[in-house]
Every structure is written in C-alpha cells, then in structure tokens.
Amino acid sequence: MLIKEFYDVIVIGGGPAGTMSAKTVAENGIDVLLLERDREIGIPVRCAEGVAISAIDQFFPLEKRWIATEIYGTCLYSPDGNRAYISEKAIGRGLVLERRLFDSAIAEYAAKKGAKILTKANAIGLVKENGKICGVVFTLMNVKYKVRCNIVIGADGIESRVGRWAGLDTRLSLNNIESSAQYVLTDIDVDSHSCHFYFGNEIAPGGYAWIFPKGRNIANIGIGVSAERLHNNAKYYLDKFVQEKFPNASIIAFIAGAVPTSGTLPKITSDNVMLIGDAARQVNPVTGGGIASAIISGQIAGKIAAQSIKSNNCSNNFLNKYHKQWMKIRGNRLKILHKLKESFFTLTDKQFCEICRIANQVDEDKLNLFQLFKIAVKGNPKLLAELVKAYLT
Amino acid sequence: MYKINIELCDICCSCSAVCPTDAIFYTEFYAKIEQSKCIDCGKCAILCPVSAIETEEATSAN
Questions:
Q1: How far apart are CA A56 and CA A298, in angstroms?
Q2: Which B residues, 32 through 51, put their C-beta within 8 Å of a C-beta on chain A?
C-alpha cells in the first residue's frame, strides 16, 4: 500500500461529506487522501437513512443498489394517537437509503476521479510547524504515519476532533445535541412506502420516535431525545416504544449515537482547515437529517479547496468562501430551523395533540413542514414570537 | 470519577462532542476517559444513549 509523503488535501472521515469532498477535490485535478477510521466505508450505519430524492439526484444518478425503498408519504402522530398525513405532493418523494452501499458508492466515485482512500486509518493529530497546520498523523494497522498536506478537511462526524485540534470550538452544549438509539427490526408489519414520526414528552422528550421502512418487512426504528431533558437514556425510550408497537419483532441491528442540532458552528474554517457535515454541525435541527447537508457542504468545500490549492492560498480568508457559500445555499435555513426547534420541542402533549387535530383539517396534499409550523404557531404564541425573531435576525 | 464501561459502549463517540476538556479518547474498537483531563462534569454520562459512562462509586457498588 503506497502512501505518499504529501497530498494537497487530506480528508478525515469517510461518510457522505468526506467522500463527496474527496470526489470534488479529485475531479478538479487535485491530489487527495481520505482517511476512514473504520474497517469499511459505510459502516457502522448510525443513521435512520431517510432523505429527499431531490437532495440526491442533483448529485448522482439514482442507483437501485443503494436504495432500500421509496417514500410516498409521511405520518405524524400526536401523543393521543391522532395522525396528520403529509403526502409526496407537498414535500416531494423520499428515499430510504442503504447507507452502507450509498457511502461506499460515493467513495467509489471519488476513487474513480483519482482520490486515494484508506480504511482502518485512525487520525490522531495534526502536524503543525511554526503554528501552521501542514499535515495529519494517523495510525494504520499499528504503524504511525505522518503525511503532509496543504489543506485538512475535517469530516469526522459528531465527535469533530479535527476541529478541536485546529483550535476551532466544536463542543456542543446539552441543549444542542439529541441522544439517539435505533434498532433495525425484521418480521414487522409496516408499509414499505411511508415514514412515521411520533411526538410527545412521554414518548420522546425534546425529540421524536421514527419508523423508516426498508422493504421486506424490515425497518429502522429509532428515537432521538434532547440530552438536556433526559430522565432515562435514549435506549430506555426506544425499548418502551418498540415494546408497545412491535412486541414480537426480531432485532437485526442496534446502534447508538447522537445528532448535533445547534445549526452550523460559528467558525468552520481556519488557515489550512475546513470542517464539513456533522463535524461542522450542518444538520437540520428539527428533523435531525444530515445526509443532504453533508453532500452539499462536501461539494462546496471540495470546490473551494481545489481553487485554494490552485491559487496557492490556503488561508482562512480564502477557505472562508466555503462558509459563505454554505450559509447562502443551506446554512441560513438551518439557522431559522434551529430557532424554531427550541419552541417546537417544548410544546406540551396537549399542544401537540391540538396541532395534529388542526393539521388534519388541511388538505393532505398541501401540508408541509412550514404549514405545520403555521398551525403550531396558532396554538402557541411563544412560537410565533420565535418565528418572527428567526426571520428578522 | 467517570469511566466508560466498554461492555456497554457502542463507540459512537458522541460523548466527546460534549466533553469540555477533550478528555475522551477512542479508536475503532475502544473508548476511554483520560482521567488527567476529566473534570467530572458528567455531561458525557447524561448524553450517553446506553448509559455506558458510570461514576467510579456506581461501578464499585455493582
């Protein structure tokens, strides 16, 4: 396995953000190395795997091998069991991915463009000379490597250690992180083309429970709860939910994790360093969805990194163009959603029920997330104040 | 004093995102709290989805 002493760009982390950035850097003719800590790209799958088709097909042709099922509609449930239905006519068609194969496919595209990819490569620090970041230290099968580069892209997920090594504050407070757990259950009776979300303070305080079908009577069933409001751990709430809904199902996977819900960090670049995806906290704070953001930020960061190498200027000033473009394309929207999140998830069970009741009166082809917020606002003036503030600031 | 019970830990590394002192170290198969850096704030234990982070007292009581 030939590892060169120098690459223009080193990407740390082989999720969708990392692989997308490596692909973009490589297709611009720049030398790039991607380091993945796990033994295989795509595993473990710490994800509910749902995403809008529109977020994917603008970047890649859809491939059957990494699509588990298509989603035509989404059901939202209030604590009293009432249901509001959101159809694909209102929000577009969704996909449940096979993330293991999807991530691996983006890595293949990256490799095809010339990116060098290593697995079981655990980054343990950055190389600094005279205060300047100029490489990465990693271990690979018990051997320590020190490889130099001009730009380090941190795509290392929730932990976001690369950022901290580079002096960026990536820490999250407990009110900006959702503690999560998920089972993949088999032999259950679920419709293969609808997602289900369950709200309520007993079910999932400060979050929600989800069912994402994968076809063949298999589904990802998980829960996210606000770390700030926990009385028990996420697995406790998940077990309670599964016991009630699917007492006879068999478990084929269990996974724990957490989702950053702060919105984009205030600072995601510095001299020679860029953060992307979960590492930059580029996640929809209301839904917890991060795949679409990861791909967009990976592409923007990859493009700016390539331009930066070509212009021989890897200063924060140059790399910050990525931050600006990101905010314009998606970051600002996440910022608004972050402000709404706090109010949305502090609704009482009674308010949840009321919202669901009113939502049921809306034509199902017209009900979308924004409509839902409008309804929520009617029942909760505090939410309206937040909404106004969110749009004005 | 907080410790990670590796039998319960899923190595999701989420705890390190809330650690104020960057005291949590992990590899593909292993995670541990560096006691010299830990300030006993307990945020990691609150966040952990499977309650794998325990105080020394609780561990010895078991």
A1: 13
A2: 43, 46-51
Please give the residue that has the higher pLDDT: either A231 or A387: A231
Q: Write out pLDDT tens, residues A73-111.
A: 988 898 888 888 888 887 789 999 999 999 999 999 999
Q: Which residue of A has its CA nearest to B18?
A: A172
Q: In this predicted model, what pLDDT tens digit does every residue of A107-147 receive, in sequence order?
A: 999 999 999 999 999 999 999 999 999 999 999 988 999 99
H or E stretch covering A7:
strand A6-12
The H or E element spanning position A181 is: strand A177-186
Question: Is residue B41 a part of any domain in this protein?
Answer: yes
Closest CA to B29 of B48, B9, B53: B9
Nearest-Cα residue of chain A relative to residue B25: A124
Token duo for residue A112: 């095809």
Residue (of A268, A336, A334) closest to A301 by Cα position: A268
What's B25's domain CATH number?
3.30.70.20
Note whether residue B7 is domain-resident: yes
Q: Is residue B21, in this structure, part of any structural domain at all?
A: yes
3-class secondary-structure state, position A310: helix
Q: Tokens for A208? A: 């929600």
Q: Which domain holds residue B49?
A: 2-57
Cis peptide before A79 (omega within 30 of 0): no
Contacts of B50 in chain A (CB under 8 A): 181, 233-235, 256
- C-alpha distances (whole Å) from A218 to each of A42, A77, A176, B13 are 19, 21, 31, 27
In a domain, B16, yes or no: yes
Count of the separate structural domains present in chain B: 1
Q: What tokens were used for A33? A: 């190395």
Query: Which of A235, A240, A251, A278 best probes binding to B when mutated, by most B CB atoms within 10 angstroms?
Result: A235
- Judged against a pLDDT cut of 50, whether residue A393 lies above it is answered with no
Q: Least CB-CB distance to B17: which of A37, A159, A254?
A: A159
What is this model's ipTM?
0.91
CA-based nearest residue in chain A for residue B23? A161
Q: Which CATH number fits domain A6-46+100-172+263-340: 3.50.50.60, 3.40.50.720, 2.60.40.10, 3.40.630.190?
A: 3.50.50.60
Substitution target in B4, B5, B9, B12 with the highest count of A β-carbons within 10 Å is B12
Give the whole-angstrom CA distance, residue B52 versus residue B62: 14
Rounded to the nearest integer, the mean pLDDT of chain A is 91
Angle of helix A332-344 relative to helix A381-392, nearest 10 degrees?
160
